[in-house]
Design a protein that fits this description.
about 110 residues, alpha+beta, elongated
Amino acid sequence: MTQNPIHLLLVAVVQDQDLDAATKALQNIGASLTYLSSAGGFLGRRNATLLIGLPTEREAEALAALQKVCRQRIEYMTLPLEGSPMPMPAPVPVTVGGATVFALPVERFEQI
């Protein structure tokens, strides 16, 4: 087993349109990452799940990089009005975007 400096795994879910900027920002700070295509459960929109390996002391730097490039946006969903005799959709504002990040300690890491 090789000794390495990775002690933390960040799992970040970002909107698909923020993927390129997030990837570049994380690469600029020297973070190792892989991304997986995924879809949101609520709106069913495409997003990306980033797996980011880095030393624990670099966590704040990675979070700041993501915060800088992953923007929240207002999008409108159409929902039927309750009690309406006809199914007339009413646009409802929904805040989407940003990044949802989970930090997981890494006990062991190997490259084979």
